[in-house]
Amino acid sequence: MTAPLVTIDDVQAAAARLSGQVADTPFLPSQTLSQLTGAEIWLKFENLQYTGSFKQRGALNTLLLLTPEQRAAGVIAVSAGNHAQGVAYHAGRLGVPATIVMPVGTPAVKASRTRALGAEVILAGRDFAEASAALPALMAERGATLIHPFDDDRVIAGQGTVALEMLRDQPDLDAMVIAVGGGGLISGVGAVVHGSARRPELIGVQSALFPSMAAATGRWGQGVPGGATIAEGIAVAVPGTRTRAHVDALVDDIAVVDEARIETAITLLLQIEKTLAEGAGAAGLAAVLADPARFRGRRVGLILCGGNIDNRLLSAILRRQQLREGTILRLVAQLPDTSGSLGRLCSAIGEMGGNINTVVHDRTLMSIDAKTTQVAVEFELADPELQPPLRAHLEREGFAFALEAVGG
């Protein structure tokens, strides 16, 4: 017989266990994002949890349900990200030995952070699947209990507590848009939604590189290509069995969004809300940006489910967004090879608000003759609307040039 689904009663019981041990994070409306999208956007700031993610809810609920014998033998998990930190942190708090298996290629900072939270870290395998293959032997050797990142009813119930807080603070939501990887979060949210008097539409969102749950439940027919996604937290190739059962029964739809839309959402949350969201944390906003007509005029709840993002990746995302917006430009000009010509060009760019990044001054190979030099200047503008006056100013100053968006 198939086990019954997690219910709102299970989630409420989990909330009672977690009370005082997990942050009751803010759930606030965003006036600017609402104006931008045409929907009334509410944000649940799970990126403000101690470990930077909602994942600690499910991890703690599972730990609190262990028997004394299981606690003494310890727990084990496989993860290179938020689940690892959630398990390590709360196991350490409760005095439960914790072992975290991570792929060999896990960034050293993530492994060291997990160790600092009190867990033993074992590096095994090249990826999540190979790291997972090391679990059975370790569990048998140590007698440890597995805390699965998503495919466990205790984890699902713990993750669902976030929805209880959302509907308590704003009971009149029309829709909830939830990032989906393995499906633990949306399964728990679905249990709460279907146990509530008012049932907002429940929409999952996945990256176009890993639409595994959408494909498994018949909502996506183009396969799961995989690849390097910025939404690592929801980059799950095969969803869970229990979570799939919950999604089949409780979720209305699953949207699929591309990487560029997720990058834009990360940038907007940083610029507008002054909050840092990782790719998975920004996926809900990405879905609204991708289909504004669907959400226009509706009150929409989004979960910023994580804020752990690599600094180098964030830097690349912000620069790529500047390229899309047309605020990083390249100007190529032919100048007389005389003293002061380059200075006049750079001054003219600066007078119109251009902030120069690089200058390439070629006096030989790219010049059209011996008395001419070619200059390529890459610079930033605060606003793409400054392009026309900049162009007009350079023309008045007598420069012959080509101006283009970098990457355009």
From TrEMBL:
The keyword Transcription does not apply. SUPFAM superfamilies: Tryptophan synthase beta subunit-like PLP-dependent enzymes. Signal peptide: none annotated. The keyword rRNA-binding does not apply. Its cofactor is pyridoxal 5'-phosphate. Residues 330-408 form the ACT domain. CDD domains: ACT_ThrD-II-like, Thr-dehyd. Keywords: Lyase, Pyridoxal phosphate. GO terms for molecular function: L-serine ammonia-lyase activity; threonine deaminase activity. One of its GO terms (biological process) is L-serine catabolic process. Belongs to the serine/threonine dehydratase family. This is Threonine dehydratase. It comes from Sphingomonas hengshuiensis.
